[in-house]
Amino acid sequence: MENNRNMWLFMGISAGIILLFWVVLPRFFPTYFTSPEMMSSNPPPASNGGAGTNGQPAAPAVPAAVEFKARPEALSADPRIVINSDRLMGSISLVGGRVDDLTLANYRETVEPNSPQIVLLNPPGTKNAYYADFGWLADDGSKLKLPGPDTRWTATNETLTPDHPVILTWDNGEGLTFTRSFQLDRNFMFTVTDSVKNTGSASIQIYPYGRIRRVGTPLSTGSLYLHEGPLGVFNGTLHDSDSYSSVKKAPVDYASTGGWLGITDKYWLVALAPDQAMAIKATFEHQTENAEDVYLTKFISANAVALAAGASTSVTTHLFAGAKEVHLLADYRDKLGLPLFDRAVDFGTYFYILTKPMFYVLDFFYRIIGNFGLAILALTICVRLLLFPLANKSFRAMNKMKKLTPLMTELRERYKDDKQKLNQGMMELYKREKVNPAAGCLPIFVQIPVFICLYKTLFVTIEMRHAPFFGWIKDLSERDPTTWINGFGLFPWHLPPELAHIPVVGGILAAVTGLGVWPILMGITMFLQQKMNPPPPDPMQAKLFMLLPIIFTFTLSQFPAGLVIYWSWNNLLSISQQRMLMWRMNRQP
Question: How many Å separate Cα 263 from the centre of its chain?
């Protein structure tokens, strides 16, 4: 009867582990499949821009039955100012005066050196339109003629570089002259200054605004472990819970003084930061145009700018459009006074105090060694040194347990029909020999937060994207590309993405077909480490523990290679430490 109960218990625990790793965790830890769509982090979507009445900038007119233009055709339709820097390439449209064409010069879609560069922004009229525009709004019912999405500006020169700003001008013919200045630093930050001069005879009231528009719901990781979509900081508080789906249900409004807002992808960010002394009304909003989803993040000044006859005014907005590099975002936070700007990298809420320091440790080692894979190995050594006293205590307890195995076997034989006396005898044995049977599990539980934080760091930081190790590992943030199904890298075959994304079945197929070299090495080291530990007294539990290396091997095959390398190296260090301790204990009388 007890054997049957243990068997059912064993089967239940095994099923629970499989359910946890192949059904529950994929919602937080997305499976790593290689497909053209997923390998390109280029956000597929947004469109149109302009000016209108208070709170509602107009969009460029689009025919009812729209045909999307190819990107080159859309770019050639309007006169443009060329953007040229070491990190950004693209153009500013003189029609509307918007930033709607940006390519990241230093980032490519895949690890292949000749793969396409990341295209971040696209002009209106294209299917993946995504851009930022700026301007002025008037009160409802006002007859003021303000620059809009179809306004043709005049430029002072033809190229914007970090050393040469560009100034656009437009006269409304009714006493108002508008000027828009673009400056670009040597990274990803634009400084946009909008000025108005009132040469008329009457005073006016206008409101500055900024807006980001994106057409279509972009392809995302689908992970609950990462925020993608609208986000912003208002009154010093980060708001990153507004997803694309939640914005679809209802607009979200915020009131703030200063702050910033935008749309984030896993690695890329497009964000607007108004004057930090300006009171603003910010909105995350969804619209539908020509059966396409349109997402907007926008701000408008909460107070009108009163402009008397003969007076002039100006407002400055910063536009960030580029890669979410941790040090760069922190630098903008400090130099421009943008609150929590570095939190655009989703290091998490609960583990933030561990995850971000872990990144800085990895980055420190990387700057010394020059390889993030070796930096992970160095980090593992640091973790092992910190846990050395705890691990030593645990190994001592396990070695004592191993020596007590014959006595425990004798007790089980003696009291095999009396469970109460068996438990009492076990407790007396543990007490007499001063052994804590749970001590061996403590280092494992302590390392769980380290495991999660390292995964988070590998998953969200662009510094880890396409970071190579040695040999076939070209990207530590992706899974080991070698699998038994492709001859461990000899044949170019992968699980089709359409199969990979089938719930439950896709995860099992990926685990079975995606077993690579590093996961196998990790499983071997885990098995060797387990053989050094005393087996559980219950035979069923012993069988369950023997299955764990196999389960973890298949499960971790879907995780980033950097995480598998960390786990393998950690197992080797544990084996070495335990062997040394066993040698010392065996020498003692």
Answer: 13
